[in-house]
Model the fold of this input.
Amino acid sequence: MSLVPFSPHLCPVNAMSLLERIEKDYVQAYKAKESVRLSVLRLVKTAVKNRLVALSRPGGTLSDEETLEVLVKEGKQRQDSIDQFTKAGRTDLADREAAELAILQEYLPSPLTPEEISQAVDAAVAVVGATSSKDMGRVMSEIMSKHKGRVDGKALSEAVRRRLG
Done:
């Protein structure tokens, strides 16, 4: 029986952690001189290191879930900047932020569709036993915990308010 030597190219892509994927893409962007992608991935790597320091794990690593939280936060910051720049009439800056957001979204799970949000709201209302708008926070946290990074808080809030309203 002959053994096949280990090759990373034979491993499934899913076996790669989110941080490993970011690091690999960072190196590729550096070699390809893709300045926007390189800048975004450099900022993500810095945000990850800052998160590690905040968690008192310098030199350690984040789980995929913790990395996803960092990416979601970075995405929200870009979206807020886009909104602010658009209101101020600075479309040049808004376009740059939108390009950065598009790169970040490559690493985020696909967002829930309005139908999936509605189903999640119905399921969470049943689980929590919500009967009025007073239960909105519990319904929201139930959904957010099950669908991390996949649901926009504003859209979810609107759907929950409609359902409980």
Summary: The two ends are 67 Å apart (CA to CA).
